[in-house]
Amino acid sequence: MSRAPEYGLPVVAARSTGGRHGAALTEDMKRIVQEQRLGFVATVDPDGTPNLSPKATFSVIDDHSIGYCEIRSPRTMSNIARGSAIEVNFVDPFVRKGYRFKGRPEVIARGSARFDDLARHFTRHGSIAERALHRRHSH
Fold first, then answer.
1. Shortest CA distance to 57 belongs to which of 79, 26, 34?
2. Could you tell me the strand order of the sheet in which 86-92 lies?
3. Contact 26, 128 (CB under 8 A)
4. Among 48, 57, 64, 100, which one is most buried in terms of CB atoms within 10 A?
């Protein structure tokens, strides 16, 4: 079994279900991601079964991408390392509306210039993001 990348920020090139690949996020999509922050990340395990993992640190990266701080999801990260497609779901329970984003994730390596640039998107999440951004692994 491949070893999961343990350092990095998974960034998803966002595409809403039914939308065009590479289409820009709408203002409402951005609102839901920013307000709700809790996204449910689905990947596929090697045996073909689904893996669903809630992530509470999502942020809009740019007009085409969303991402989250990886805290501790070895199965999700292993699936991403194997090339699994990803789907992320968000729901605004008050207006009963949500979005599904599908794509191939990119993990931004800790220590890279892009990691440092992206980290600013997550500092507003407080201690949970700080834990992920400054975590040192002993593996």
1. 34
2. 50-55, 39-44, 86-92, 97-103
3. no
4. 57
CATH 2.30.110.10 fits 9-133, yes or no: yes
Q: Give the predicted TM-score (pTM) of the model.
A: 0.76
Beta-bridge mates of residue 20: none
User: What does the block give as tokens for 51?
Assistant: 């893996």
Q: List all residues 6 or more positions away from 44 whose beta carbon is below 8 Å from its beta carbon.
A: 50, 51, 79, 84, 85
69 in Cβ contact with 133 (< 8 Å): yes
Q: Do the beta carbons of residue 15 and residue 101 sit within 8 Å? A: yes
What is each CA distance from 46 to 9, 25, 75, in whole angstroms?
22, 31, 10
Instruction: Give, in order, the Cα–Cα distances in Å from 71 to each of 21, 54, 80.
Output: 28, 11, 15
Chain segment 19-32, per-residue pLDDT in tens: 455 578 899 999 99
Distance separating alpha carbons of residues 29 and 89, to the nearest angstrom: 11
Domain map of the chain by residue range? 9-133
